[in-house]
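Readers of this paper often ask what the protein records in our data store actually look like. Such a record has a labelled line for the sequence and another for the backbone structure tokens. Nothing more is needed to write down the fold, since each code stands for a local backbone conformation. The record that follows is passed on verbatim for readers who wish to inspect the format.
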Amino acid sequence: LSPLLAYLEYDSAEERRANTIVSFVTLRQEIEGFLADKKPQVGVYVEDFNTGTWLGINEKQKFIPASLIKVAFAMAALKKVDKGIWTMDTPLLLQPRYKNKKYGELWKLPDFTDVPLNKVIREMIVASDNTAVSMIYYSLTKEERDDVFYHIGQRNPDENPEFPYVVELYSPKELATAYRVLYNSSFL
């Protein structure tokens, strides 16, 4: 979260920017040097949320979001905590259909194990656990999923009739919206 939220000294973003100087020139050079010939296959977006200064390399090119989309599902689960519907100890039931061996360890637990929400979120975000994202995804209503994607300015991937087999494509700049929303506490 933005450490400045409690101590905003400027009346507007423009005033804050006028009093702050940020340059990403050196960072851009380092990233471009690192990417070299891989540049067409990679998208990068970096933004200083305090100043709005940003740099992008293929920042508007669409990519499969892979595990970055898990942040939105964590936000939706935490919104239920904010509303008092769930707590961080709320158990989510590990059903056999949720198990995915590709990433993470939760699939190793016995079927129908109750796993506390805090562990499910931690495994999903820290270990990129695919079983965890299924546990959260199917514990949310479509309206709750729609709500988080609306607030981060993205199309809910389950609006696609072929989801989850065909995933929405997002640009790095679009995905950054979720982090900005978190940083500014505008959803949670």
Summary: The first helix runs from residue 13 to 18. The longest strand covers residues 44-47. The chain has seven helices and four strands. Residues 3 and 183 are 9 Å apart (CA to CA).
